[in-house]
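Letters spell out the chain; backbone shape is given numerically. Both lines appear below:
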Amino acid sequence: MSRTYSMEDLLALMARLRDPQQGCPWDLEQDFRSIVPHTIEETYEVADAIERGDFDHLPDELGDLLFQVVFYAQLAREEGRFGFSDLVDGVTRKMIRRHPHIFPDGTLDSHPGDADGMTEADVRVNWDRIKAEEKGKQGAEATPASALDDVTPGLPAFQRAAKLQKRASKVGFDWPETGMVFDKLHEEADELRTAWQEQSDPEDRDAVEDELGDLLFVAVNLSRFLGVDAEQALRRANLKFERRFRCMEAQLEDAGEKLKGRDIETLEAAWQRAKKASDADS
């Protein structure tokens, strides 16, 4: 029976891949910036496996994501910046610090804290307060503070929109109730239609793009009010569309028909049949 590899083995493998004399040519060519796209792709593949309920392949996808972290740590160790053990130590200390209700003594060996009666909202308030304290100690007060300062620019657009809105909400800049967000969504849809109808040059899409962006931003805001993650909702819609479309293709093929070239009435009827069939099987 083959042995089970450990975290130490993975770190040793990464060091071998980056060995200047005997390492892998591709791995030796990489740097921090070049592997960022791979990290983003692996993150989305983890999310996709979870969305599809593909838990048989989830360990493999999580392993790929872990390898990205190991790669960064190896690059940093080579440059004398930090090592993998520093990452582990740092995140462990941070989690202990941000969970005083679990680790009241501030150590991993703390006696169990008293979390009875605490709600998720209480935990979030504590988390945000501790994060703010940490940021202050790092010298954030040296520049004018904004409620939006810690929203990462590189996030996917839907996710960043949600975070921007949450930060603004914490300082009172928010809609008072959900119905008003629905009204705003309809208003933005009307403005988008107007911009589309009034554009004099079909190649000049700035106004349409601007209004479409406003519509999507409000849609994300609405998702927040409804307690739904917009990014996750769109991934779910993508999966649903793909399932139904493939079903429609299969039904037409079984009937000896082609999808391309059909009129809109025929396509709509085929789509409705596929919706019923695919949703019944899901």
About this structure: Residues 7-97 form a domain with the Helix Hairpins fold (CATH 1.10.287.1080). The chain is about 65% helix and 0% strand. The two ends are 39 Å apart (CA to CA).
